[in-house]
Amino acid sequence: FAGLADVSISEDIPVEGEITVPVGSHSPDEDYSTLDEPVRDTIMRDLKAVGKKFVHVMYPKKSSALLRDWDLWGPLVLCVSLALMLQGGSADSKDDGGPQFAEVFVIIWFGAVVITLNSKLLGGTISFFQSLCVLGYCVLPLTVAMLVCRLVLLAGSGTVSFIIRLIVVMAMFAWSTLASTAFLADSQPPNRKALVVYPIFLFYFVISWMILTFTPQ
Amino acid sequence: QGGGSAVIDMENMDDTSGSSFEDMGEMHQRMKEEEEEEEGEAGAAEEEDGEFLGMKGLRGQLGRQVADQMWQVGKRQASRAFSLYANIDILRPYFDVEPVQVRARLLESMIPVKMINFPQKIAGELYGPLMLVFTLVAILLHGMKTSDTIIREGTLMGTAIGTCFGYWLGVSSFIYFLAYLCNAQITMVQMLSLLGYGLFGHCITLFVTYNIHFHSLFYIFWLGVGGLSTLRMVAVLVSRTVGHTQRLILCGTLAALHMLFLLYLHFAYHKVVEGILDTLEGPNMPPFQRVARDIPVVSNAVLNTTAKAMALTL
């Protein structure tokens, strides 16, 4: 062990280096700088993001923009406008035959939560809010169908108008289901896609049913 | 992210505005960086203002340490609470199915087993039953809308969801309780699964008879399809129970409830109920509001007399 006695560092070799850690590029300051911009810029930025997602829903390709920057503004706007348009569909003024605002709201959000939990339990890799975002945005075709139905009902409410409404609602229902499947089914193991698609199908079916059976006063 | 846990991990959410945890986290980070910078500065300014700076430095550091500790304790408590309540991993094993399995089980639920001498296997799976309950809700809505059922004190969706889920959960619990009394070998999840798959017959029957309005057709489906799914459930339960009296109690109750539920669903939501509701309001209301429908004359007459008898008794 004679060689090990010499292991001590001799005192005339300075031990030097940097103790302070470089602080980096001050990224928290960059985030906080959005507080100083005019309100118009903030709103326009969010509106543009929402609009871009609407375009993605109408032409569903396998892009990940919808998933990456999720937001819930679009679903909220769509849900509120759909619920407002479905109001006032009662056959009698005394009692309420049509769905109430709260009913539509609760159905959409509760349904979306159930589908998300189901897809997570089946082994999906998508996160909770991403899934809510996709399901909410894919209500857009059905909202368009509701608008068209209201316009058709202004013209008259006979058999012809029912057939037109039926075709429009069915087409939009298929579009919604296909759009949300294109985004959500990829995150599942390949042999379980059918198990995830079926509740989505039921969910949009219920919403389409509410739209189709809407009769104005 | 991978196939790992399904904990709803709130800390990694993307929204940073307004969440106090994120703010505390950033404050914590900046406090650390400031501390390092100040250590460098305090060394340089020490000679000028030795005592005064020392006091200020000490109090500042103490305050920072207290805040730091409080933040860490709060963070630990919150993450523990989340992992306890938001952990849906406990339900994961019950959803571990393949589509082929679900299809096989759906078809099996209509075939009564013959061997009742040794216990039949019941798969403890919740995906199929849950989807069947939601399908039943959708079919009920369809039936209620086509029959113009107007429900006063509730909403259509609420009634449909309440009925279906109430039946599934309530009757399952009740039969599980009876099974406990009668010493049957069945667990709660298995009972939920068995009853859930038994609703497949109900779904088929209601789907067909809400669209084709013949009462005789409904009775045929009620006995045939409803009867088959009830027989299957009864056979499975019988195979798991010992003793004649116990078997009779358990299976009689389940059969009665299951068949009566189908009867109730057809008549309550397919035909108009508002006549009864109106009769409760006052004597001046007419007892029945007829809805024009393609029904053969025979069952029409039967319904008319039944309705009149009911209105008279109320």
Overview of the structural elements:
- The complex is a heterodimer of chains A (217) and B (314).
- In chain A, 63% of the residues lie in helices and 0% in strands.
- Chain A is mainly alpha-helical.
- Chain A has a domain at 71-88 and 98-213.
- Chain A is elongated, with a radius of gyration of 27 Å.
- The N and C termini of chain A lie far apart (102 Å).
- The model of chain A has no long low-confidence stretch (mean pLDDT 80).
- With 314 residues, chain B is mainly alpha-helical.
- Chain B has a domain at 137-278.
- In chain B, 70% of the residues lie in helices and 0% in strands.
- Chain B is built from ten helices and no strands.
- In chain B, helix 4 packs across helix 5.
- The two termini of chain B are 62 Å apart.
- The interface between A and B is large, with 39 and 39 residues.
**What average pLDDT do the residues of chain B reach?**
77
Main sheet record of chain B: none
Count, helices of chain A: 9
The whole-angstrom Rg of chain B is: 32 Å
- Following the backbone from N to C, one meets helices and strands of chain A in this order, namely HHHHHHHHH
Which of globular, elongated, flat, extended, rod-shaped describes the shape of chain A?
Answer: elongated
In DSSP terms (H or I, runs of 4 or more residues), the helix count of chain B works out at 10
Helix content of chain B: 55-70%
Number of strands of chain B: 0
Strand content of chain B: under 5%
The low-confidence runs of chain B, each spanning 5 or more residues with pLDDT under 50, are 15-19, 42-53, 272-283
